[in-house]
Amino acid sequence: MGLLKGKALNWAITAAAGAGFLLFGYDQGIMSGLLTGRAFTAQFPEIDTTEGANGSASLQGTVVAIYEIGCFFGSIGAMVFGERLGRRWCIIIGCLILSVGGALQAGAYGIPQLIVGRIVAGLGNGMNTSTIPVWHSELMKANKRGKGLAIELAINIFGVMSAYWVDYGLSFVENEAQFRFPLALQILFALCTAAAVLVLPESPRWLINHDRIDEARQILSDVRIGIHEGANTEAILDKELAEIKHAIDEEREAAAGNTFKALLKNGSQRFRTRTLLGIGGQFMQQLSGINLITYYAPVIFQQSVGLPRDISLLLAGFNGIAYFISSLVPIWIIDRLGRRKLMLFAAGGQAVCMAILAGTVSNGSKSAGIVAVVMLFLFNFFFAVVYSPFLGCFLLTAALASASNWIFTFLVVEITPVSIKNIQWRTHIYFAVFNAFFLPLIYFFYPETQDLSLEQIDRLFTGGKIQLHWKAAMGGDVEGPSESPSTNGEHGDESKPACGKCVNAKEECLWGQIITFRPENALCLNGSDGLQQVEPSDERVSTQSPLMDRARRSPDTRRSIPAGNRVSSERDNRPTDSPSAISYINGNGDNSTPRLPASTRSLSNQDATTMLRMSGWSRNYDNGQTSMPSPMSTNPETNAFAPTRLGLTPRSHESPEVTTNGTTENAASALMSFRTDAAQTQLQPPAVDFPNMGFDVDPNLANMLPYGYSPEALFDDGIFLPGSAYQELHKTFRSHVFNAACSKPTSRRGTPDPSADETNAGDSGAAESAMSTTDLRMEQSEGTSTPPELTPRQERKLWSNWITEISSWLDKFDIHKHFRHTLPSMAERDSHLRLSMSALSARQLEKKDGSMPAYLSLALYQEAIHVLLPKLHTKDLAVIASCVVLCVLEMFSCSPKAWRRHLDGCANLILSMNVRGDSGGLEEALFWCFARMDVCGGLISSEKTLVPVSRWTLNDSFVATVEMYKSADGFEKQAHYACYLLGRILDLFARFQIDLDTTNSLVRRPPDQHAAYTSEWDQLMTAILDWYTDRPPEMRAILTQPATFGPKSSPFPTLLFSNPAAIAANQQHHTAQLLMLSHKPADHKFRRKTRSILWHARQICGISMSNDHHGCWTNCIQPIWLAGRMMSHPEEHRAIVELYERIERETGWGTKWRVDDLKEVWGDLSV
Question: Which parts of the sequence belong to the Major facilitator superfamily (MFS) profile domain (predicted)?
């Protein structure tokens, strides 16, 4: 328990309940085909009623029907002991008993043993069928219960169908396996059901009934996750627990200490009526004639219709398929039409089918036989539509109803063989009469339970008269008005409205809570100018805003007004420091400076445009896919929304007048209406009011940087758009990192370098001068920001995501897993590292599935930078860790074509602190994490790495480095070596100005360069091939399979590796081979044999598709692009596109830009 939550848990519960009903259906149908089997009748001739045999029809009926007697006593046992055992253990014990019964039947050599086996199996099945529906219903949401039970029906009928086809398939076997194997197969279903229920939660209703409230609350929380989107989940859980507790208390009071006697009384809870209705539902099921077909379908086809045995078995199998398909219909219609309508429809249809069946069987002609077969098929359709029409509201009622079910089933199954043999076609007449009788019974006595919770069903039976339909005046809430079941909380239920943006983002909607809208901030849409500010009006409701006019005409506006009225009373009483509150009124009583709660105060003065871009539109800005206009003016007179960042003093602007409630309500409605059209409107990013903190690198420092810096990007940069908060934060951070890289380290060791010391000594004055102004700015900003406050659940989710997802990206070369084990420990003492890690985790969850609020990653990113800036000059190892983590966040969020600009600051800091790939420990892990990003950026931009490969290790020569890695211990070092070789290729191509995007297989250089390029290419290619042939066993594939074309196959080879280092290293190797062979020197004959470019391209794709490690996926986006250009078959294209889509869906990394690039390359062959 606890591993699954939300929809996954609900489906697991439904699957477990369905497995129990699959077993039930299989047991029902298995005997029908065995009764006419040659091996079975040879073993048990006493019940052989086939033509020419002398077996007893009554004994045959008893052997088949005795199973129902066992089920009856099993149901009684569940009624007596079930409430003590609990729902889960009652099901598990039932499955174990059934398994024993199945073994006895499979091993039977005589009628007595067969009868005992069927009784024992019935005991277990009776316990299950009494308990599983109750357990399932008590765990399901009311508006999903009908669909869930319909799914149970479908699975039950699938079991019947399976039994028919198992019988038919084994009918061709002449030995005893013909009947022993089908009887033994039920043991497998029973054990699977027991195993599934063992790991699933107990019924919260049963737990509450036994005063285990905390467990019940946790289970309800797990089951309801994702259902109450945009709502106060805690309040809903409290309400649901209170309703269950209230219903249980009423049941206890009505029972007056004796629950069994209460079933026979008609007190305030009307237990007797409910029990009789439950028994009546079972009566209608079994006396409808369904068991006539389920248990004896082949017998009917053979003896009544006159078909041969083989055809009878085959038709029974097809009848089972039709039965199963029909059972799928209620899944979609039962919660829409309700149960009463379907019950009436089915009873009428069944009566007609049985009447026609009686007439056609009596005729005996071939055409009548065809009609009879059709009627049998059609009868199953009608029955499947309305299976399980009524549920008892607690276990005793359900168990007693289930027990009555088995008595009625026993009667039908017992008399059917005798009836068919003696009165023949007249058997169907009394079933037709029964079905006709059910119509008034349903119409006058059975209530509609559509969308009602079990507690609301209780209310149908309380009071002076049983209500056949729910009425709003009946309430349903223990301490207040209930959600109307007919509206599902949408219309007229007095609940707070939740805007679609928050619902889609899976965030709690703060709509209408402690917000005062200001008319001077009202925005309208202008066809040419985009967002335009509307002049404030003294009128109660502004008529100058087309946006508000449209909102007043919207039906959503009318629906949301009552909620607004109710919220007004809460607004007056809510404390201003509430974490969920947003107050636009300051301590002086005016509205001059908006103030947010502590959890988001560092994001104060966010305007509507920024919030739309951050939350609902954030995905549109990622990966540079959206083109944005120039930023708004930063003049305070034209922009009233000058956001504050890094805790700096915001720009002042005039205080508006206090607005009235009427304006508030209409502005709220306007924003609701505006949201629906926002996706089609392109907004200009707001101006961001940052003081000049050195966004551009000081000219005095530019020449002092260890590497240099990238120029300002001229293209859109993901969420780092001009004027956005992300861009301004990045500029500030990057500028300070450059300044820190030029300063002298205060607490870091480094390799002695006399020439470097002389340079530093000569330039120290310039560096200190450049730093002084920046340090002063940092001191001024320090201490003015409030860290974002995370709820315990958010914090737990962020750290869990770091441990299970993010760290796997960053530790793939590291067997010691420093990002998983060491960084969380360091984060306890270094708040900037903790904030950086939390920001990356929040951003990944935000992009992957929207499970984190859209503003949270920005708030954490901002606070991480604010805390980190004063620490940069210390050049501590934790500072490097924070910078690397923030680089990952920025690369995850920015346009891939701007990666180098987001890496160059950290590259200079790494060089200045002498962090290398052979430093050991955490330093080495941080370096290789950065080096992989550096290589990826170089592959995209066709440039050399930001950290020169000559500085990756202490050995500055290529030959010395190769020898070092060849003699290194540990297979993870070979992953470092593969990455190093790929970095060497980038360095080689950059020096000889080779564009990686070209696929020219022969490179012709000017004569003075050709020899040098050929020599270096040959030396590097030799090292690459040596890596592949000499790699240790841990770096080799543990499974290889060739490619196959066709349905459910892969057009690329399968190469499965045992560890992420091997996955990434082999992919880097094939990428290196592809690049080297694509740019082979002209007229050069390499002395060693190599594979083709296409072979390496297919290996790259195959490795990515065969291994699901998310960390390796994050680095394969560019290699797949390089390889994908080589592919020409549409199946290959489709597989690559599906892989890219899966990577983005499961990790959040943007891949669509590469899909678009590949489709352009493929042209007419594109998918």
Answer: 13-450
